[in-house]
Amino acid sequence: MPAKPVGATYRVQVRPGFDLDVTAGLAGYLADLGVTHLYSAPLLAAAPGSAHGYDVVDHRQVNPEIGGEAGRQRLLRALRDAGLGLVVDIVPNHAGVAVPAANPAWWDVLRRGRESAYAAWFDIDWQRGRLLLPVLADTPDALDDLKLADGELRYHEHRFPIADGTGDGTAREVHDRQHYELVSWRRGDAELTYRRFFAVSSLAGLRVEDPDVFAATHELILAWAAAGEVDGIRVDHPDGLRDPAGYLARLREAAPEAWLIVEKILEYGEELPAWPVDGTTGYDALGAVGGLFVDGDAEAEFTALDTRLAGRATSWADLTHDTKLGAATRLLAAELTRLAALAPDVDPDTARAALAELAAAFAVYRGYPPEGARHLANARAEAGRRRTDLTGALDAITRRLRDPDDELARRFPQFTGAVMAKGVEDTAYYRWSRFIALNEVGGSPTHFGTRPGRFHRFAAARHERWPASMTTLSTHDTKRGEDVRARLAVLAELPQRWADAVTRWMAAVPLPDAALAHLLWQTAVGAWPIERERLHAYAEKAAREAAASTSWTDPDPDFERAMHALVDAMYDDPAVSSELAAFAAEITPPGWSNSLGQKLVQLAMPGVPDTYQGTELWENSLVDPDNRRPVDFGVRRELLARLDAGWQPPVDETGAAKLLVVSRTLRARRDHPELFGDYQPLIVHGPAARHAVAFDRGGAVAVATRLPLRLAAAGGWRETTLSLPVKEMSCLFTGRVYSGSQVRLADLLTTYPVALLVPTT
What we know:
The chain is an alpha/beta fold. Helix content is about 45%, strand content about 15%. InterPro entries: GH, GH13_cat_dom, Maltooligo_trehalose_synth_4, Trehalose_TreY.
């Protein structure tokens, strides 16, 4: 049966503790909210206790820890009863191997080696010897703790199989006969013999380019799609695959009616390849929408502040080159070694250096035809500029990379994507703290804001080319929640005030790493009030990801004590704490205006809007795992019922005004899709025109306020007007009716800083 159109989704992190039955209990609320489809985290069996589901261990069954197949059936019944569909997340690139016994295929490979029926499932370099498993302590005598028990090898809580006929002797003797070798956890990044997801050794790469592997790992999901039990599929990390285009063509052929979206991270100005998909998961929209509410005129002042605080000017291009090179040569050293081995005509060390430089210079996650040739040429030129001593090697390797049939050319794109993710998103974003509202997945921190004209061009192009692509403002992978970014955007309206305040605070509570200190102060003011333990956890993760003063592999206890002392001072130092709280309180109301504005734009613009769990109210989450915290749906149900009873909420700390915007916009899209079939920018006239963004979706008109502080300082809307497409329209947020060809924004936006207008007839 054909899948029904996907109008709007609501993302739920289904997991142990919030299982399929609890999720089923949300169906009525989600229908009332106005979404058409539940958008679920991965449902297949994952590693024991997995909080996210991206470490699938058994593709043949629904995760028993979230309710299994019976729970899935109960969820389907609840969704059908509420008139909702289902979109599921799938993970084709990798599988979870942290607990070998939980993954039958991996267990069999460990037991039988190359002779395993599942050996072809995993991207293993058997030419380099035994399969290395980085689980041991980093001590010379770690293997002394190895034991034999119940026909298995045991290392503390870890269990491993024993190959047939190899179980006699001591534990060390038995270990030395296996198809695998247990090694120090520190050797993982440098020596592993299997492809991983980024630098995560507990996630082993799958070879879904093999039709048999594709069939085995997708059989259950595709059976659901064929039975009409799945309406949409979200593909996790397609850039990690050997042949994304081929994979997506096979998936589309197998699920021709499914809404198919891909977690493809597009860099600034990059276009999605012409794949047989409906679009991306929306990070491109996130950047464009969020940028609308950032004042680009403040860029120079924030650059000057960053330079003064750091004691030097920071080049984003040089910083990201260095962090990407570090990712290529350290975190992903094992993958780099495997690539270099494919260039035997070049000295191994030279080949490694040349490949690492090319990856560090690659401007996008990976190149695809026909643009891939241009990106490779640009990377070659930049790598040659930085390393003139590598000219010969760069030329030889680049020639190989231009041949699509060359094994090196097939594997290198898998490497560049991992280098970009680890070097930029997971490192540089934590080191470059000029203005962290821009440091977001798929974002471009060097492009300071989005002017309305550019946004309109972006939205019109989406309507024309990818009308069913997802739009989003928050996901489980965003670096901070949408409302935190919206409040941080206010700082761009008062750069000098911010510079003065943060300079005082950093002098009062110094930290050797000024860039990290600036990031933490911005984070605090953006999320305040935030529980102390959450901010401590964030600070530790941010510092270790930045890897400038401490790191995951080599924590610096002295630095981390100073860092945690800074966080404590935010709560305990009376002068600092009171100033911080007062500053946050001052920027909170304009932050609410930005939140409502960006939410309306995201929900009303072309595409399929997603609402991440809980974000229909104010939500001050930070990076994972903070953004997976439990959501109080009881409060949301109660507030929605009050709204439906006629309550007109103020814009205040309850967040009910945001719930009003979300529910009324989603219901309009669901109930009147004919009003959202076009995209036309609307012209605003008058002295405050730059402070509004407005567009007509084919009947529904969205209007949002930009830069609210500067609007107020300039005297408000005054005689600023908006041209209406029809003579009489009503606002879905207030119920007011507006007649005539022009409406004064001072009248339209008197209750809320946003409006959604529809024709009265």
